[in-house]
Recover the amino acids of this structure.
């Protein structure tokens, strides 16, 4: 009897913990705790707040392909099949416009803030391994790092005059552990020779493929040794963590 009571008490405790965890996630402001639907809703709210045209563009993105395919179906006397196809195409069109405007809103919101390069790095595919803010100065000049098929890349953001020696110093440190892998540097900004925040992810993705997955893993291990030898850089206050919403930003 006592054993049965202990089992019931344990079961009741598990249920209570499960309910408490569900309630915590429901009230959480951390995107990592949100489900896919809430991620989309919160991303929509954030975007629509700064982009008043978003609802109308999404309506147009749905209605135009739906109407075109429905009319085509009526003309071919197959309105049901083409109507269903139009619904799918309309949904995809609306979501594509949503993803495009959401990315644009995020870049607009965070451009110019210290550490904003992290937003662009989170838009890269999973085959890229990014480490935001590996170095930062008291003036909030920042260096990020990403490693992927296009190579080992250091991204600097800040005042160009101060940023140049900081990037050069970081490049030398990385060359000591990269063993023949070229260390490339990029300066963020809108001046000549710089890459704007909203173009950074595409700029990196278009770089020629020079590293295999095996080589990426090898270089990654060496970078861990380098990072272990340096003091942890203080993260600048600015860009939010986009972990929960980045799938929506990528259009997935």
């Amino acid at each position: 009897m006592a054993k049965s009571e202990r089992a019931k008490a344990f079961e009741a405790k598990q249920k209570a913990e499960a309910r408490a965890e569900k309630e915590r996630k429901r009230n959480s402001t951390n995107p990592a705790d949100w489900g896919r639907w809430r991620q989309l809703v919160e991303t929509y709210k954030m975007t629509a707040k700064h982009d008043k045209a978003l609802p109308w563009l999404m309506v147009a993105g749905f209605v135009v392909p739906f109407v075109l395919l429905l009319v085509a179906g009526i003309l071919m006397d197959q309105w049901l099949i083409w109507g269903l196809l139009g619904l799918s195409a309309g949904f995809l069109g609306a979501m594509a416009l949503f993803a495009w405007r959401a990315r644009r809103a995020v870049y607009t919101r965070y451009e110019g803030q210290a550490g904003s390069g992290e937003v662009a790095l989170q838009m890269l595919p999973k085959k890229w391994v990014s480490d935001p803010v590996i170095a930062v100065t008291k003036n909030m000049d920042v260096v990020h790092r990403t490693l992927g098929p296009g190579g080992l890349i250091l991204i600097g953001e800040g005042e160009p005059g101060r940023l140049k020696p900081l990037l050069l110093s970081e490049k030398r440190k990385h060359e000591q552990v990269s063993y023949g892998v070229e260390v490339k540097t990029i300066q963020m900004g809108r001046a000549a020779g710089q890459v704007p925040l909203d173009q950074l992810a595409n700029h990196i993705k278009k770089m020629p493929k020079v590293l295999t997955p095996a080589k990426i893993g090898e270089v990654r291990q060496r970078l861990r040794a380098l990072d272990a030898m340096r003091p942890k850089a203080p993260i600048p206050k600015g860009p939010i963590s986009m972990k929960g919403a980045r799938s929506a930003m990528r259009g997935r």
Notes: Residues 117-232 form one domain. The first strand starts at residue 129 and ends at 136. Confidence is low (pLDDT under 50) at residues 238-252.
